[in-house]
Amino acid sequence: MFDLMEKAVEKGLLLGATYIDIRIVKNVSEEIKIKNGAVEEATIKTDSGFGVRVLKNGAWGFHSSNKIDKHTLDQVVETAVKIAEASATRSKKPVKLAPVKTIKDKWRTPWIKDPFDVPFKDKLELFLEADETIREQSDYVKAGMVSYEARKIHKWFVSSEGSKIEAEIVFCGVGVSALTAKNGDVQRRSLPTSFGGNYVKRGWEYVESLNLVELAERVGKEATMLLDAKSCPSGRTTLILDSSQLALQIHESCGHPSEADRVLGTEASYAGTSFLTPDKLGKLKYGSEIVNIVMDPSPEKYPEALGSYKYDDEGVPVKRTYIVKEGVFTGYQLSRETAVELGFEESNGAMRADNWNRIPLIRMSLISLEPGDWKSEEIIEDTKDGIYMDTNRSWSIDDKRLNFQFGCELAWKIEKGEKKELLKNPVYQGITPEFWGNCDAIGKDFFIWGIPNCGKGEPQQIMWVSHGASTARFRNVMVFSGR
User: Domain segments of the chain: what residues?
Assistant: First the structure.
């Protein structure tokens, strides 16, 4: 495979490209969705192809094909070079790339049981049992749902700077949810999260570890309990977020605004650009002094995290980077190109494409709020009056990533350090720096959540990311009922 790619690279250089890289990707994906005892979806898809990215006359060209042979590779390289030449006639300034070391490596994610080797009937039996268990919990359960997805990805990367990288990636995950209804009120409960489940870079052994039928029983019971719960009160109060909700808070108000392409205006789809302009770097008070938000997708440290990887799709090794350090905004997620534009010496390895026919974009990887010193129960015990919210239900954020509003599936009223009363339809809102500035307690119950469906770009690319988070407390937050 590498010999074929290296010859194509040579072809691009002969045509005048100053830089060229080629990615070959082979994908296998499986999705299963169960609802009310019926199989709504059961698909296995395979595809393969390659993408060629070239730099000529200071401009990018990209082309791809699903046919992998020498003749097609040569044709695609020629077309990519022509696209770069045409782009150069309209570009305002030439692209410059930060330096990168030459890498020759092969790596793979850890798995024990290949999810694609597990018989379909075994998966189906488990998921149907979980679905039935949800619906057994109450006559008010109107829908039980199970969602499962697995991916196997084999990638090869070659660049004109001499890098040759091969990667084998497997991930999977599953989630259960229940919808209940009573007197016009509809409630939802989801576990492990509301993102269609939690996802990790492991094999089928992860699904087995979740005790899915037990989770199914819990979601059915809790969704029923919510029907008789009081609505969340309105007003400013102390807010405690569980780690899964905080993961989405990090995603929307920390991860996306620190993507350098949004900052520079070359990416603006899906809720726009960013308030983290370069003049704020090293100066903006982003949060309280205990807030430390870090990009660290290193597979040596977090081998099972969905957002971990060793090299990005520019062949750049990942680099641990603080986005926020002791409350101060200190860093971006970078590509080689944006690193130069923003004055950094090197990229930190944030460029990824979701398939062979897509150009890499700056994408979140593993962005985490570093854990604090509190036990999660101590945060509650230390709170005289407040609201504890759990599991995302809805979200909205403006095109600068400043003003946001999140709804959760359930909440608890906290009185004198205890969870006293179950609440439904809870919503909180805030402004990003003010919200993080009001963070005064972070737990040490650190957990990494995997989200398989982060959207960005046009045409849209769906990427898999992770966020590490703990229980955390925020003072003076506006809360209200969403219904």
Answer: 2-228, 231-481
Q: How many CB atoms lie within 10 A of CB 134?
A: 30
Among 324, 306, 346, residue whose Cα is nearest residue 258: 324
The burial of 14, by beta-carbon neighbours within 10 Å (0-12 exposed, 13-18 middle, 19 or more buried), is given as exposed
N- to C-terminal Cα distance for the chain? 57
Q: Which of 427, 418, 420, 433 is nearest to 481 (CA)?
A: 427
With 90 as the cut, is the pLDDT of residue 147 above it?
Answer: yes
Tell me the average pLDDT across 452-481: 96
Question: Could you tell me which residues are beta bridge partners of residue 405?
Answer: 396, 429
**CA distance to 91, 130, 296, 298, per residue, from 468 (Å):** 39, 27, 10, 13
Per-residue confidence band for 89, with pLDDT thresholds at 50, 70 and 90: very high
Q: What is the pTM of this model?
A: 0.96
pLDDT in tens, 205-250: 999 999 999 999 999 999 999 999 999 999 999 999 999 999 999 9
Q: Give the model's pLDDT for residue 287.
A: 98
Cis peptide before 317 (omega within 30 of 0): no
Reported as a single tens digit per residue, the pLDDT across 248-306 is 999 999 999 999 999 999 988 877 899 999 999 999 999 999 999 999 999 999 999 99
Q: Is the peptide bond before 433 cis (omega within 30 degrees of 0)?
A: no
CA atoms within 13 A on the CB side of 98: 20
What CATH number labels 2-228?
Answer: 3.30.2290.10
By the 10 Å C-beta count (0-12 exposed, 13-18 middle, 19+ buried), 355 is classed as: middle
